[in-house]
## 1
Amino acid sequence: MPIRLSIPLVALALVLIVGFAAGRRESTGDPTVIKVVSSLPRSGSARPQTDQIVNGIKLAFKEIGYRIELTDPVTQQKTPYRIDYFDLDDATAAAGQFTIEQEIANANQARMDPDVMAYIGTYNSGAAKVSMPILNRANLLMVSPANTAERLTKPDTNNRERHEPGCYRPSGVVNYCRVVPTDDLQSELSALWIRDLGCKKIYILDDNQTYGQGISNNVESFAKKYGFEVLGHQSIDSKSLEFSSMMTTIKGLKPDLIYFGGTTQSKAGQLFKDMVKVGMTCPMMGPDGCFEQVMADSASPDVFEKAKFYATFGGLPIDALKTLGGRGGEFIRGYKEEYGKDPLEAYSSYGYECGLVVIEALRQAGKKDRDAIRVAALTKIKNFVGATGTWSFDEQGDTTNQTMSGNEVAVTTNDKGERTAAYKFVKLLKK
Amino acid sequence: MLLAVEPALWNSLTQYLINGLTFGALIALIALGYTMVYGIVELINFAHGDLFMLGSFASLSLLALLGFGGLGFTATMTDASSFVIAGVLIGCAILSVLFCAGLNFAVEYTVYRPLRNAPKLAPLVSAIGVSFIFMNAGLFWGGPQDVNFPDLISNDNLLGKDAAIRITYKDVLIIAVTVPLMLALTIFVKVTRLGKAMRATAQNPTAASLMGIDTNFVISATFVIGGALAGAASLIYAVSMNTISYQMGFQNGLYAFTAAVLGGIGRIPGAVLGGLIIGLVRSFGSAFVGEMWVNALVFGILIIILIFRPTGLLGTPVREKV
């Protein structure tokens, strides 16, 4: 009997303790510290990319020794600060990708901590949709290393009813910026590449998610401009395990290329395998969500020899960065010194770029003040020499960087005769 | 009117039929495990799909151990002779069958047996718990992403390189393994002493034990056979689909469970029929309705069939189990 009674009592006590602890929040914070958080999917299949993004961010802060001296533009008073960086996870191991609940929790944590001056994230555009309004109300600068959905910053000219991007900016000011080019550019450059590959008839698939469907609709809309025909367009259920029947149908239409708007997580690898399995040899092309080593690992090298897999990627890959002057080469050298290897995933340079943007915004603002930092990021970052070239933020927070790269999965054989597949840069895409 | 249809359409219809039957045969093999266990102890063993998933990871780990690549393995073994590949496949088959049979036995012994006389909901909830434990073990074993399974079997068309219809070694393998297994199981249950004991236990466990049948042994044997079938299915699935992931047990388990219910749960031919129907609905549904609607279609058909035949297609109101 006493044991039975004590269980609800302990439970009640726990709830009360947790409740009080949550309610007791510090309102002032530490005057010598500036906190920067990032919110990226650190568990699940995007982990290899986000590892590289986080490495990039850390490298940027490491270069200034995690210390920054801000000079107030009015009083000229100098104040030294320590930068504390927090790497938050917006995914759960069970989901394998970001969850809305986790992203909301991260955004609220950042919003309520008075020392947090910048929020680097998100990786998925779908996650940004929920954290943008929360951070916007808090006037907190948000810099994304990877969001490409254009509706986060640009209105849909065909559909004014959707209230985007206004619904992400409830306070009316812009607090969100990103260092990657958006999907509309990516889709146009993909369409241009499809033309350059000599494809006349293509079939389009998408994963029925914000990112994938947006980009594939755009590719379809550019078909006429770039002179190819769209034989069909359908969405897949990304929880399905195999697609051989669908590929049989598509095979009957004899396309020159299949475009898949989706990511490695939404079954790009399985689609490609099943395409080859039903005996098709035409290439498949995907957007930057497929541009990761996991894609090249998702099938045997044999499969990549039977048909080509192309992926577009915003900005330039590591190979091309080396040839540029300025901070691109500097970044690669610094990364190698710090981590003992080359940055492999292409997003690493964007992580570094986000770190640089935050540092520059802090310096330009000259004080630990969320609003000043937000204004500085959106108005003072012009002709900025970063790791991905020289670029500016426009008034909507988009980068003016307009080049992308075309890549393919190439199979190489080492001297032991082992064959491995990896992405290789093949073409610079430019309007 | 159908005769006037172009040959190209006939070819693709045949292809959908082949795709549907091969996938359906795999689902049927998993469904047998659900239906046998339900038939004998009236427990829906939700962990069965995840057992199947763990079986494929066991095969993959053996391949890694034999030097055919690890979890991130990408190279294929075109150099290895077909003799070696056959040996490797047999090794994987033995391992996955023993592994799944042993694991299923252990779960029955430790989790379900103590609950034998508990209310029906208790073992059901435990089964869901075991399913989650297996799924997390799979997550730990293989990681969250889809894992490539080495292409051990050639994907070449047996009917010639440019033939309109594709039948590959993989398709042949699926049929060559699943059909004999299902036949053997049916004969086993109908003819052997243990099979008779299983049917007796299914009809009335108390009466069966009064007649001198060791019902605990019979139930354990059912779990071992069901697990062995899941092990066989896991290898065939991995070899033909070339992708495994910790979540595939849930998806395939759901299909298999549906197949068992569709055919009449507790009936072995029913599970086979249900599996084949699901395979065909998936295949033709993808072609004529759209890939996105395939799952809705499968479960929609399940609901319609259950409205008209609540005991499933082959289920009879007078319950005759296993």
Note: The longest strand of chain B covers residues 147-148.
## 2
Amino acid sequence: MKARTSSSSLATRGSFHCAWLVFCAAALALAATLPAEAQEAARDPAYRAFPLIGSRLAVWAVAQLHLNFAAFILGVPIFALIIEIIGWRTGEPRYDWLSHEFVKLTFAAFSTTALLGAALLFLFVGYYPRFWTYMTSIFFPTYWVYALLFFAETFTVYLWYYGWDWLAGPRKWIHVGLGVLSNLFGTAILFVANSWVTFMISPGGVDESGALKGSVWGAINNFTWMPINIHRLIANIVFGGTIAAAYAAFRFLAAKTDEERARYDWMGYIGNFVALAAFIVLPFAGYWLGREIYAFNQTMGITMMGGFMSWLWIIQAILIGILFLGSNYYLWLGMERIPGSERYRKYVPPMLIVLTLGFMVWATPRSLVLTLDEARAMGGTHHPLLGVLGVMSAKNTVVNLMILTTFLSFVLYRRANRVSTRGWVGTGMAVQWAAFGVAAAIVVFYGVYGYFVESIVRIGFSVYQVLAVLAAIVLVMAIDIPMFRGARSTGRIRWGTIAPRSQYVLILLAVTFTWLMGLMGFARSGIRQHWHVYGILRDTSPEAVTPALGYAANVITVVTIVFFALVMFIFWLGGLGEKGRTATHGHAPAPMLAGGSDADA
Amino acid sequence: MRVPVGVKVGAFSLLVMGGYAYFANSIPQIESKPPQELSLEGGSVTPAQLVRAGEEIFKTKGTCEICHRIGQKGTRAPDLAGIGGRAGKARAGTSATQYLVESLLQPGALLVEGYPNIMPAVDKPPIALNRSELWALTAFLQSLGGTVDVVLADIPATAGAAGPGGAAAAAVKVPGDPAAGAAVFAGKGTCIACHKAGKLGASPVGPDLSQIARIQTPEYIMKKILDPAALGTVAGYPKGVMPPTLGQSLTAREYTDLVAFLLTLK
């Protein structure tokens, strides 16, 4: 243990101290924005101009980077804790190693997140003083809650990471408890910050002049607060999973030994599994968020989906289609390293067809801003044939079918090297297939029925579609787990023998999801158009124009490149401490998996 | 030669992101610009000009076209073809003008059967049409099958009050001459003694105004000249130096010229 706390420990501890300093600086800046002082300061300019690139671009870039890092350090600990609990309850040390490995990644990114958060705060205070004064007048009490939560989060994460060896063995439950606390504090921090962001989109608890009507709770609990809380929580897990999987993929590709390749193949699989599991429920959270935006303000909702942002959803559909196809392709490639999986290869072509068709329907536009010539050429604002596929009825239907298909991929992967020995296997299988079939039929039925009813009724159909899919997932897994418990193995998973192109798929997923996060951030901010706080505080700066998608895409791309460059640098720094380290640790050592595990995770 | 993994992964990632960015740049590029304010009060305007202005508002700032169609049945909101003619008969004892104005200001009170109550009051944020714009929009709606007879007095004086966001601030048009304002800046106003403004002046006593229109609202600039103490002193500069008497020493013309000049400094 002493050996471990040498180099790597010092590196991470140093970064943590840096985080502390940054946080203290931010706290000082926060203190400087006490309402009276802030109001005094804001008598001067409403805006200041950031040199060269302008204030908006500076805030945009720093906010996106900060959110990327924050999502990573909040998402990864959630599944790291789950993996640690699995290792604790099953007694399998490889899970403990993996959990520690994941937390190590977030630990290295902690200080960068705090640094970027402080930079964002400085930008708001310095370049958007009128806006910041107004936000402070509403949310000042939450600043202290945020600061206290940050302290609590820091202490528990610190203890969680450094107490890994100290709290091993019979004291493991205390260690797991620290992990739970860390995640609770982290989630609370997310919720507090979300209240500020969502208030800007859908202000609540204030009168027409923007003054607080009652308590600050009315402003916190606005229309989009809880949907964004849930959406971001799930998305953070997906994001964390994809980044962790990409890290593993990089290590796999750079591995020099079979053992190392096997270890990172397994880690990549787990990362992707986590991402995929969370990803299939993400669209549901997205629909809820969309519905709440419409409930808050129909004009905003319609502008978002059918106005100047309509093309954005086509790009989103393409990115999500790539994520679905990539995730499934990775699973199919992974089956090649599982003896006995040949039985299921015949399912791949039909699944690919469903996914591809679903992708195409989802990417079909309905309402786009057209020039008069374009509209004339098409014979109207909607395409005479394809326009039918552009409505929500069709899109809801295909996304649910894609989720079902992806789940089927996972189920087949899961049983690839196992043959159930249960006497009721035939019945179990039949019920499972029936569950898939009934869910698909319900989804299609409501999808078609949706064309014949009013929009307000149609919106409600998506709930039935989602429930049908979720019910099928629960039922299939409820049968699958006991059915394959104690199953006969057709061979061990040959970890490390997966085709290298599969690792590029993992990198593709991470890059695509990160880019998608940037795009969705632009959508979230862009729907406010020329308002800092929608309908309350107008953006009167020269930069009040909401830019076109091309410009937004260029910014998102550059920031994503910077993010990955920083991530690689941070991981490289974190890995420096590993070099030459041979001492044993209190937590589980790196597992030996090459060709020697029947683990199905 | 063996290509390092980092290079391969980096090139692959750049290719993926480049593809996304390329696609996003290939599609129609549409910006959302802040709506401009229209002011017709105090001016003479013909019904035809009013209708034209109203049609523009219908399609842009009013965001009416998102839900309403003209000559096409929509699912969200009624078809407005012929509304100018129908409006006078929609409710007994209510003129077409009254009906249309009320529909715009209190849409929930005059809901057309079969349609959801989703229309926002258009004089409130975020749409926030002012009186002139409401006047023009009503005229446009009247022109759809009816007679344009709405006058500004038909629009309630309380309608269209700007919210705290300062909706009017960004588009204030000052009827001054920037060139003459530059002369005031360098001459009678004595601003040049303390301020730099682009190529004019170099004094560091007061803040550099070379980008003042970029970082400040017209409202702030106008007020600052008349009552500098009321808006405080920019951090880092001496207090009480700016003369409080410019409101008396400058003529109205010189004042508007000076503001117009400052608004060119971006």
Note: Confidence is low (pLDDT under 50) at residues 1-12, 31-42, 594-601 of chain A.
